[in-house]
Amino acid sequence: MDTSVVIVGAGPAGLVLAGELRLAGVEVIVVERLEEPTGESRGLGFTSRTMEVFDQRGLLSRFGEIETSTQGHFGGLPIDFAVLEGALQAAKSVPQSVTESVLETWATELGADIRRGLECVSLRDDGDSVEVVVRGSKGEQRLRSAYLAGCDGGRSRVRKAAGFDFPGTAATMEMYLADIRGVRLEPRMIGEAVPGGMVMVGPLGDDITRIIVCERGVSPQRRTAPPPFSEVADAWKRLTGIDISHAEPVWVSAFGDATRQATEYRRGRVFLAGDSAHIHLPAGGQGMNTSIQDSVNLGWKLAAVVRGTAPEALLDTYHSERHPVGRRLLMNTRAQGLLFLSGDEVQPLRDVLSELIRYPEVSRHLAGMVSGLEIRYDVGTGSHPMLGMRMPDVALTVSGRATRSAELLRAGRGVLFDLADSTPLRQRAAGWSDRVDIVTATTADKSREDALRETKALLVRPDGHVAWAAPGAHHDLPMALDRWFGPSR
Ligand SMILES: Cc1cc2nc3c(=O)[nH]c(=O)nc-3n(C[C@H](O)[C@H](O)[C@H](O)COP(=O)(O)OP(=O)(O)OC[C@H]3O[C@@H](n4cnc5c(N)ncnc54)[C@H](O)[C@@H]3O)c2cc1C
């Protein structure tokens, strides 16, 4: 074995997975075909749930001052995300290149071996290990590992080489993206329907403006290179009447609405995470966020199995938990695409939805879907409202010291929050104390989290989801500990 886990691709999914594995002390090599990061930023900002996930790993301060906003949309219909009480607000305008740079530094500091300039060309899973062939400037080499994760984006080589099915629909349209300098355009932050299509304008700072343009009825092209800026400027002129041909293009790209999802996220010793597992129209800024959260779900499970503390079966919960999340992502981006990009024929639907969105319950549902805060994993039945949900950040007092639940998750271990100072509870969990931190705490913030008001204890997984709660879970604590962390010592 060259290492325990090989990760193909150093995008957001690959870097987060590398960091999570290193947090648990697992050896990892990341192979990335690019010699250097491109500095390009498809995504801007991240959702509330990603803010929480980064907070749980102590990463937020690395971004400096983060501009947040509660203003969002669903398919172009404005939503005030403030309806999601008790959550951090989404980050606006953090370029994806900055997020990737922060994640790469974090993973490297934790000891991830990131090897750039190496492209995965083929792989073979022989049942006991995986051998991957990578090609670089010094020719081909082979790396053998216990597991391999394909985090190599929408055109994933790993997905094809390992025989994953990727059904869905091909692109029906194409949109242009251009970051341009030297023109002043009126901001149209959530996209604006214009006769013949949709246009979006957002300032990126440094005199750079991002424009996105979608012209209805134009068939997608099979491209091997970015479109020339003249194509974008021509489309802009046709849709808005404004001539931007004199602008300086900083980055030009095209993307479509192809929507596909792998039928399995795991085949034997090979996993898919991020865009390699799901592609869709980038509506509502969710792709990178979902990719990051795929990896946060997979990382601790894979680490536990590699370290031999949990059984192999734990790995199957990666597919059973994340595949439904991907399916909903595809559903909501398809719906948003229809609302956003269709013509007058869907105006009645937009009008009806605009009325519905004024009901807080409706906007809370849609905001919960887009932000990732509504995700509930199947952790067993019970009446406690937080079972399977993410643990919100709650102010706590531990041994007389003020802290927050997010801070207690930073080590990437499970945490048993004993909120009723119960010796029997702590004794029942003692056999797992090598994997689970047992913390006696009092909530200092009861007013904010209704759900915690009557709660005596919570078992939180390393990914921040509640695996067990008392009172209200139908199974007992040792069962939950055994299920998620393996047998007691
Ligand atoms: C226009 C646009 C706007 C977007 N805006 C947002 C947004 O605002 N918010 C959001 O959340 N998402 C957004 N997205 C989606 C987001 O960019 C992706 O979902 C995200 O980059 C996926 O991360 P990933 O790590 O899975 O894949 P990628 O970021 O694609 O990373 C894959 C990595 O693998 C490497 N690689 C590929 N093949 C190989 C190989 N054979 N060997 C070795 N390395 C390989 C690549 O070089 C790359 O570094 C947007 C997408 C587009 C197109």
Can you walk through the features of this model?
The protein is an alpha+beta fold. It is built from 12 helices and 28 strands. Strand 10 (130-136) and strand 11 form a beta hairpin. The chain is globular, with a radius of gyration of 23 Å. Residues 8-14, 31-34, 42-45, 96, 119-120, 151-153, 157, 177, 255, 274-275, 282, 285-289, 291 line the site of flavin-adenine dinucleotide.
Concise synopsis of the structure shown:
The protein is an alpha+beta fold and 489 residues long.
List keywords for this structure.
489 residues, alpha+beta, 8-stranded mixed β-sheet, 5-stranded antiparallel β-sheet, 12 helices, 28 strands, globular, binds flavin-adenine dinucleotide
Mean pLDDT: 94
Q: Main β-sheet: number of strands, strand sense, barrel status?
A: 8 strands, mixed
Distance between the termini: 27 Å
- Helix fraction bin: 25-40%
Overall number of strands: 28
Give the helix/strand class: alpha+beta
> In angstroms, what is the radius of gyration?
23 Å
Alpha plus pi helix count: 12
Q: Which blocks of ≥5 consecutive residues have pLDDT under 50? A: none
Strand proportion, as a percent range, falls in 25-35%
Bound molecule kinds, no repeats: flavin-adenine dinucleotide
Anisotropy-based shape: globular
